Amino acid sequence: MGTTVATNALLERKGERVALVITKGFRDLLIIGNQARPHLFDLSVQKLDRLYETVIEVDERVTVEGFSEDPEPSPIDVDADPDLVHGLTGEPLRVLKKPNYEEVRESLQSLWDLGYRSLAVALMHSFTFPEHELEIGKIAREMGFKVALSSQLQPMIKLVPRAQSATADAYLSPIIALYLDSFRKGFKGELQGADANKLLLSQSDGGLTPFTDFTGLRAILSGPAGGVVGYARTCYDAIEGTPVLGFDMGGTSTDVSRYGGSLEHVFESTTAEVTIQRAHPGPACYGNGGPLTITDANCFLGRILPDYFPRPLDLEKVKKDFLKLTDVVNEEKHGDDRLTPEQVAMGFIQVANATMTRPIRTLSEGRGFETSSHNLACFGGAGGQHATAIARDLGIRRVLIHQLSSILSAYGMALADVVVEKQEPEAVAYSSDATSRLNARFDSLSSQAEDSLKKQGFLPHRIEHELFLNMRYKGADTALMISKPEDGDFGKAFVARHHREFGFTQPRDILVDDIRVRSVGRAMDMHLSSPFAQLDSLTKAPYVDPAKAKSIRKIYFEKEGWVDSHVYHIADLPKGCKVKGPAVAIDATQTIILDPASEATVLDEHLVIELLDTEKVKVGTDEIDPIQLSVFGHRFMSVAEQMGQTLQKTSISTNIKERLDYSCAVFSATGGLVANAPHIPGHLGSMSTAISYQANLYKKGELKPGDVILSNHPCAGGTHLPDLTVITPVFDDEENPQEILFFVANRGHHADIGGIAAGSMPPNSTELWQEGAAIESFKMVKEGVFDEDGLVYHLYDVPGSYPGCSGTRTLRDNIADLKASIAANNRGIHLISSLVKEYSWPVVQFYMEAIQKNAEESVRELLKGFSKRFRGHPLSAVDHMDDGTPLALKITINPTDGSAKFDFTGTGPEAFNNLNTPPAIMYSGIIYCLRCMISSDIPLNQGCLTPIEVYCPPNTLLSPSLKAATVGSNVETSQRVVDLIFKAFRAAAASQGTCNNLTFGYGGRDERGNVTKGFGYYETIAGGSGAGADWEGQSGVHTHITNTRMTDPETFEKRYPVLLREFSIRNGSGGRGRKRGGDGCVRDIELRRPMQVSILSERRVNAPYGMAGGGEGERGVNLWIRKDPFDGSVRTISLGGRATTPMGTGDRIVVMTPGGGGYGKDPEELDEVEVDGEFRMHEKFVRNPHLFRAQGSVSAREAMGTQN
């Protein structure tokens, strides 16, 4: 049986009241999450609601002894210290404090008295040391609570996702239990005792489990999982061997998946995110006042037959709505050619198809599989209407549709097996010496799972065990779940898969993070007929007699227009015959469209559709087609997304791998931004300057295929030096191999590139050379040959030659991450070359320029609106850095053409610190702010800056000399520039205005030339966002120019010699007003060995401003809790906004980040210039001249998935 009770309860927020029990200091951890905001350009920063209502902090603490980044680890004798224990992984742990269980019981009693009955428990490092959690769970159950323990639900490192899983389970399991209790009462004996195994429920992993073991967490998405099992069993043949891409298009959502012989389980899910008809009020054809949807487009174009639909459809309403929409489109589009209503409706479908194929490409191509080498299995109620179009877009020639495809999820549940999974954490390097330990643990887990299946009545010969190791390279974060291969060599299988997915291997140890057993109980032998065997057995399949058609209907196709199409009832079609398109095959629950260039073979249980012609409609370049504009927008963004996916997976460092401090983008041959993935706004807006610089630096012919450029110098479009930009030209392979068509590039923050301080973020630098390697232009790869010696020279030798400076302290990681950057660019080159081959260069170039023009027109409309709102007056603002340096801006808008001049005259001179800001950052701030104020979801690209003229006097803070220190520019001044621009537009109160840059580490070359092995760590810390006229500020989130993630607390302590004592919301720090500003954070870190610690921050003197009478946010505070090494006494020392100092063991750095400003009118403080109205995020202020736009992204959806 399957159920949507859990999914519906989660979506509708109708679960059980939940209390979260968590380690002291982390009460707000799930509010902060990974501190990233899900949507880059949404000033209201809307995050998902939390599922729990209240929190109890338990005063207990366990941490890891030793740290993985230690370059010279010492052996740890666990037996010599009573506070040391071995975790489940075998790693040594230190129990710093055991819980006082009586106090825990009292706290739980208070919860019980308040009516709470469900608890989620998540303690630090409980995945490897669950004792404290287990005891708390025991106490809670004795009191009558329903309890979800994170260590039992998901015994894997990372507290945030584990706590989220426990919270979701506690929220949903009681609802599931009530539903099942009610269901069981309809049976004699209520399915008690031996009958309990007769009621099996589908889980999100595709397996079945008795209702007694069913939980809320495993119930989520169990329906789509049933569909995966369904097509895996019916549309894949191990002998034939072609892998299958699953396309599940239901009434209100779309899911994509892949099957190649085994089920692969992931911990984050991504869907195709297309709304087909909306649950309520439904599509326009339902007659309930709903908007036009994909269902309406299919209906209008004859792809849905009203006579066979289960409810009456209002086709006349749909026609009227499409006629009105067509008039709007034609009024706003340029050119003489007018679109017909049919073309507009077809545009709906084309854009929907483009949106859905993007995650399919990411799912397959992102893992090293070409989409064209697959079959496509379509199912769900709407899948058959889009099957041939989706396949054609992906280059797939064969589509399989099961006769039960519309209910394949339910059928898949009937085909599923009973599954018991057992998993435990591990921490061992894979080797022959570790084999006996791993085999013993496999045997133990298999025995446990087998015992569970035997109790359900399965005989031993009906039980199969699937063995997995979750493996990764040492120093990497991305683990791969490896199934035991036939030869039993997990290491060999890991290396092969890593090479397939990422294109390279590493000369590093392979670590095992988790050991997993999936035991399957097979109740019966399933002998399902293979569609491929049936196809092979057909000698010559005759075409069906057209006389068997129920009717002939006109259907609109992209190439042919309206075409007479035969309508067949599937049950009337003889087995073994062929149906030639155009045609429609229908039954009671599905409609399958065959386009004119396809034909279907009717088998016992399938329709197998072959695409006879995979050529697409030729795209013209006479004028912009708004439909193709959106399609190309999706394709360009898909390139950048897959580049980012490659970079994240193949990199080594925490900054890129886990904090996601990187960006990838596609640029024109002159350096203009074309498309980007939603990464770091500060990178995206400034990278075009770096690309333009290199494009102009090299004469034609000096850059050759296989060349890769490395640059980070501010004079070359760089920002601060740790951000290394890797640039690769894309050449015309077909016509002119010397002609550059595009550039692909990525920029990532490296943990260390040398200089006077570990982490290369010195708060006290005053000259550029103090901040590390400064590279104007270096061919890191020359015609395919990697120049490692040259790289060592630039990153280590040169920066180490300056007085008091060291070369990079993380050279190995630098080289590994730069190789990952090269791999990411190579991925982009491959995808762009495929795009050019598919459409031709003139077409691709035409729509590249059209996308930029579209953005330009949107910005012009935005500025015209502001000119009208401000009654033609210039917009101006002044703010001050904490050192007193003024930032000044005057914006003069031309109301006729929507152009504007941003004049920063009045900004203070170059500063004797590191807040000096290269001009590229100004452009980055401007393009970001403009994009935020456009309500339409347009792509961010160079067109946004086309109407903008920027002036800043030379030798000022925002246009400094080439030797000025700049390390704080990209993380501090950039935030203040953004606040300044929003202040001028009166769009929002100030956000925290800083990134709160914290670095620590040790090692490198000292003044005597001695080299000590060490490491560097860098993080930025969230704060409060500013409020606006129609939104409250968000607490504990990164704002504006940055959007990096925070390292999970457990990973943080495992890798580095620190103890995270607190990470919480700084309550009350947001500004007051009609709309409150968001609160900042408190981050308290204790050092477990001597290190150099640096803090670089702003808003410690000048508070974040309020807007329209709203109150200021609280200023930030940086404290050094200094422990005397002799008597143990403690002093609290204020570090100010910028400081670097050696700290000892037991010392603490406490960072209290600023809150955001509040918003609220105060009649006594009205500005001199009267303004018509307020800026509101959700009003339709800008009307984009094109209806169809690229929108959404896989990366953004994955980021959303990690929010609480």
Automatic annotation (TrEMBL):
Coiled coil: none annotated. Residues 1-144 form the Hydantoinase/oxoprolinase N-terminal domain. Residues 625-1161 form the Hydantoinase B/oxoprolinase domain. It holds the Pfam family Hydant_A_N. Residues 277-421 form the Hydantoinase A/oxoprolinase domain. GO terms for molecular function: 5-oxoprolinase (ATP-hydrolyzing) activity. InterPro entries: ACX-like_C (IPR049517), Hydant_A_N (IPR008040), Hydantoinase_A (IPR002821), Hydantoinase_B (IPR003692), Oxoprolinase-like (IPR045079). One of its GO terms (biological process) is glutathione metabolic process. It comes from the Eukaryota. GO terms for cellular component: cytosol. Residues 547-611 form the Acetophenone carboxylase-like C-terminal domain. Belongs to the oxoprolinase family. This is Putative hydantoinase oxoprolinase. It comes from Diplodia seriata. The lineage of its organism: Eukaryota, Fungi, Dikarya, Ascomycota, Pezizomycotina.
